[in-house]
Write a structure and sequence with these properties.
Length: 223
């Protein structure tokens, strides 16, 4: 079985006038199915950049990003978009749910974009939301959900298309301590149940210690 995600000597530079900002320099990272890795780094040291590269939202200045063994540098924009849609799920610090759609509809939608019939998408969405303790909230609009419930809907949405990779950027960073623990428990349970390779950025050392492995960004590299 190929590794879902490989970052091979990845560098990312940004140029502003004559100044060059070196964010990542020769970073290496590999994820295997079912593994949950904590990505730890101070703010402003490239954590979000690494997640964007892993999620095919940006292209590296140098090095390779492989998803399911495919060198994504060889893909055109349409192929990258399709690979991102089908094989990568995202959870952000803010849930980004569509406010005019119910919890169920928010989880159905990415499946329909992937051309899954609505009937099947609804079954999948219902199962995911139930597994995250939201059986009684299927028809609720985001405005009627608590912060923790919204974030659990966001987790279900990220897992809806059965991705090989889950990328999460401070998924509990916008929640209070008690709610954060509950949501993180649900996230770990859902990810392990799906056998997804997950990379979860966090500033919380207690949460980081609960994951399988810790990857720390230092001087543009993963250590």
């Amino acid at each position: 079985m190929s590794e879902p995600l490989v970052l091979d000597q990845v560098s990312r530079f940004y140029q502003s006038g004559e100044e060059v900002l070196h964010v990542l320099e020769g970073a290496n990272l590999r994820l295997v199915p079912g593994e949950i890795v904590a990505l730890v780094a101070p703010s402003g040291t490239g954590k979000s950049t690494l997640l964007h590269l892993a999620g095919l939202l940006e292209r590296p200045t140098a090095g390779r990003v492989l998803v399911d063994g495919r060198d994504t540098a060889k893909l055109n924009d349409a192929e990258r978009t399709a690979l991102r849609r089908d094989r990568i799920g995202f959870v952000y610090q803010f849930h980004h749910l569509l406010p005019e759609f119910t919890a169920l509809e928010n989880v159905i939608m990415p499946q329909m974009i992937a051309r899954i019939p609505r009937k099947h998408a609804a079954v999948r969405a219902t199962e995911l939301l139930a597994a995250l303790g939201l059986s009684g909230r299927l028809d609720h609009l985001p405005g009627k959900l608590s912060g923790g419930e919204k974030q659990r809907v966001a987790i279900a949405r990220a897992l809806a298309n059965r991705p090989a990779i889950l990328l999460a950027d401070e998924p509990t960073g916008n929640l209070d301590v008690a709610t954060s623990q509950v949501v993180f428990d649900e996230l770990l349970r859902a990810v392990r149940g799906q056998g997804v390779a997950a990379l979860i950025a966090t500033h919380n050392p207690e949460l980081a210690q609960r994951m399988d492995r810790l990857a720390r960004l230092q001087d543009g590299k993963v250590v």
